[in-house]
Structure formats: C-alpha cells, structure tokens
Amino acid sequence: MPNVVAVGLQWGDEGKGKIIDILSEFADVVVRYQGGANAGHTIVVGDEKIVLHLMPSGILHENTCCVIGNGVVLDPATLDAEIRGLKAGGHMLDDGRLLISARSHLIMPYHKKLDGLRENEKKQKIGTTGRGIGPAYEDRASRMGIRVIDFLDKRVFREKVRDNLKLKNFIIQRYYKDEPFRLRDVINEYDAYRDLLKRYVGDNVQFLHKSMEEGKSLLFEGAQGAYLDVDHGTYPFVTSSNTLAGAAACGAGVGPGAIDYVQGVCKAYTTRVGEGPFPTELAGAEGELMRDKGGEYGATTGRPRRCGWFDAVILRRSVIMNGVKAIALMKLDVLDAFERIDVCVRYRIGRKVYADPPLGMKDLSVCEPVYESMDGWREPIGNAASAEDLPVNAKRYIKRLEELIGVPVGIISTGPRRDSTFILQNPFQR
Ligand code: IMP
Hints:
The protein is built from 13 helices and 20 strands. The N and C termini lie close together (10 Å). It is α/β, with parallel strands linked by helices. It folds into three domains: 4-100 and 201-262, Adenylosuccinate Synthetase, subunit A, domain 1 (Adenylosuccinate Synthetase, Chain A, domain 1, 3-Layer(aba) Sandwich); 106-194, Adenylosuccinate Synthetase, subunit A, domain 2; 266-423, Adenylosuccinate Synthetase, Chain A, domain 3 (Alpha-Beta Complex). Strands 9-7-5-2-10-1-11-15-19-20 form a ten-stranded mixed β-sheet, sandwiched between helices. Strands 14, 16, 17 and 18 form a four-stranded mixed β-sheet that branches.
C-alpha cells in the first residue's frame, strides 16, 4: 500500500487540513512530523468547523490511527485542550488511535515567553505565532530540550526544568527585564497534563515499521509550507523546522524509501501571514476582496492574511524541492468574483527577467511580478457537480497552471465542505 506525504507549497494555510481529512479515508495511519501548535488546520464536517493545531487531522476518521512524530515540538496544554475538545464533540474515542512519540520535544512556558519577548524587541519582526516554536527547536539543537520521555519521569523532568530555568530566567530577568519563572509553578502546571498524555506515549519508529510490514498505508501530514522552511524558505521570515516533504522521513522515523508519493497542496492564489517578502501581494481592493471571499484570517492567531495572485515562479521551485507528483488546487471558488485573473510567470528586477526566485531576500523583496492575465469565469462554482462541470475559463486557468508548474492538478477544491472536492488522481489508488 502506498505511503503519501501531503505538503504545503506556498507560505502555509493552503488547505492541507481539508486534504488530509479527505485522504485519511484511504490511509491507515496519519503522521505529523514537524512544527507544533503554530499550525492551524481547519476542517468542516457537516455544519461543524473544527480547528486542530497539534492533533493530526486524521483523528476525525474512526478507523485511522494518528501519530505525533519525534520531529514535532509538542505543547501539552494545547494537546490536552484538543483531546478534551474532540472527546466532548464525540470525535475521539479512547481506543488506541493516538500515539505520541516519546522523543518529541516539549514546548515549555519559557519558550512561549522568550518567543514573545524576542519579537517585541526586534526591529525587523518575523511575526511569529508566539507559540514558542523557535526557542523550543533551539533547545533541541543545543541539547537542552526536554523530551516527552523525560516528562513522564517526574524526577528527571524536575531536574531538567530546574537546569533550564537557571539560564532562561537569567536571560528573561537580566536581558529582557521581565518576571522570572518559578520552578514550582512550571512543575505544577505540567504535572496536571501528565496523566492525560502518558497513555498515548510510545515508540513511533516501531509502530510505523510494524504498520508498514502489515501492509498498511501511511499519510504524512505536513505543517506550514515550502517557503516557511528554515533552509529553503524566505529566511529569516520562516519557521524553525524543515517543512519540505523530505523532512517526513526524519520527523517520523522512517527511511526516505518509504515515501511513494508527494501530494502538493496550494491555493488557486497566494496568501502569507506574518512578515517577509511576497512578490505578488495585492495591497488594494483586490487583495481585500480575496481576503473577504476566502475568509483569510489565521486559524491560530486570527491575524488577517496578506493575499495576492498565484505565483508560478515560487510554485515551480516548490514542486522540484518537494518532489511533488500532483497538486491539490484549493479554494478555486474564491476567484469567482474576479473579472480578470493574473498569474505571475516571471520576476523582473530592473531590466532583467528571472524564471526562478532570487537567492537573497533583498532581491526577492524588490522583484516585480511579470503577469499573464486571464479572463475570470464570473459565476459561482461552489455547487459544481464535477470537474467537468466547471466553467470553461476555470478549466483554462487550471490547464495554464499545470503547464507553468509542470505537474498535473490531481485534486480540485471549490469550497470548504468535504463534498466540494474533485479527486482526479487519488494518490492512494494509482
Ligand atoms: P513561528 O513558526 O511561530 O516561529 O512563526 C514563524 C513564521 O511562520 C511566521 O511568519 C508565522 O506567521 C509563520 N507560520 C508559522 N506557522 C504557520 C502556519 O501554520 N501557517 C501560516 N504561517 C505560519
């Protein structure tokens, strides 16, 4: 049975939650492998809107197991609230459907505090989600991190928190002139999460390999998007993990050969939340129309998202970096309102025209998009019964995007509901 990675190809918020939810029906196990509660996946089931930050979106399918991999930085407070919320909504039964890697790292209260203090002080802000992601990954890399396995042992946990607080409090008090953390408060807060979480903790490597031996299918759920990748994104305006498909192997504990197919996910236009260059951004009324029609407000922070036209230059590169086989084109219906639709096909800096994004941020922030203009379809497509049913201009738009980015559109989404999705190429049924 194939194993599939689904990844965002832009700056996050592409609609991965919906795609994972739909593809989960064909997968036995869904695995998160990087990021943390900075992600916000919105899923609409019937009339209910569910927002998940840490829990893999597959949890809404009764027969799917969910794994939070070692590459995730885990905020116990968020997970605790999500488990309680899902149970209250009748979505999660205590039936062994969730496994948390013993080796994932904990987000601690001082990570969130330092994330905020650092942002406040910066002249050139990143616009982080404030969830402590950067400081937690820093601790992992500097080998000061606290892992879930440490958290389960009360004594080990206490010692590690005490050691960490010495340095963190020094920085918080002396450098930022803010209130220090008290060991007792941190321990008491985290003690309250242990009982609920410990029943889910296990060995993700062993579990995933056994699942593959049994012929089960895995779906790896990416968070954020290619241009927020710490290496390949618009650094320093990025998150602190590798968000590309290649990270699925390390963050889940499987070999790269276990990945059979990469499903890219992108919007029919572009959005970005937080700071950083965004060549096709629309500052005026068109951008506002996109934001309104697309409900473009962050699922995690509620911040308005910056909106702009589809950028085939960054998409082409995303496809290459991720090894994408086909894309899921999301929110096509948001473009119903536009008489004319632009697609960025090249960048221009001065007199020079570029087919690839420049390497430096300085150049990326001054590039001007070179657009191709297409006629819009000016009719609602949310109730189209099939891809065949879409207006001619919508089909032309899709075809042109395929030509520009070099891979087919395998899934088309024309609204938030599960049934407004057309699967032309199912990665699990090839
Ligand atoms: P951090 O991941 O909270 O450190 O934020 C770093 C950058 O990534 C900021 O620009 C955030 O807005 C952005 N970011 C992080 N997670 C997401 C996401 O899930 N969707 C969109 N942007 C995100």
